[in-house]
Write a structure and sequence with these properties.
Elements (H helix, E strand, L loop, with lengths): L1 E3 L93 H10 L7 E2 L2 E2 L5 E3 L17 E2 L2 H6 L27 H4 L6 E2 L36 H6 L3
Parallel strand pairs: 1-4
Antiparallel strand pairs: 2-3, 5-6
Length: about 240
Amino acid sequence: MKKLHLLTLGLAAGAWLATPAVQAGIVGSPHDFSGEAWNVTPSDPNSVCGPCHQAHHAANNVVPLWGHTTSTGPWTMYSRTAVAGSQLDATLDPGPTGVSLGCLSCHDGTVAVNSYGGQIQGGSSVTITNRALIGTDLTHSHPISFTYDSTLVSKDQWLYNPDSRNVLVPSSGTFVPGNDPTINGFLLGGNHRVECNSCHDVHNQEGTPFSIANNPKLVKIVGTQGGRGSLLCRSCHNK
């Protein structure tokens, strides 16, 4: 079994670059596997999209046209009882859902990165290791797969209303805000769901452009505003 040392995609913000090199989409990002030796699907060798998506007979329980093998866990989700001092008032799903399930189908380490299209591609399995390996115990990662709406805000005074509060934007540098700058529009996919893509954009289509030096984790918001950082965290948390 081979091991793949991917850049970490944990929920942490990198430093801000005033004039980052904008790269469109997956190409050149940590999820660009087109140059990997195992990327040899006969119908689409050296594919950029193929390791995760397929045009036909794809799964519909993760994200559109999902073609990668889906992990089954089992996971241990973040909970009030699992983390001492936790003030979590949200109700989490029993396991990762949607986009988060797609992310963890590589990052929990139970499924090979090159397991897609119904088989292991390129011979032996390639798995994630190093800090990119999140694992199946999610008790010490930011909670995912729950609803963040006005009902949750009424229970937690330290959260902003996702429908009326706009995300914090860096004072300088390149930032692509998208069409809806509210928390719900920009971070929650318009459906009040907190998932991995609330903080990260693997396709690099909105937020802070990918930069290997300053945004290797594909975080949506990095930088400072008024000399204060942690814009991603403080966009939702009233701290």
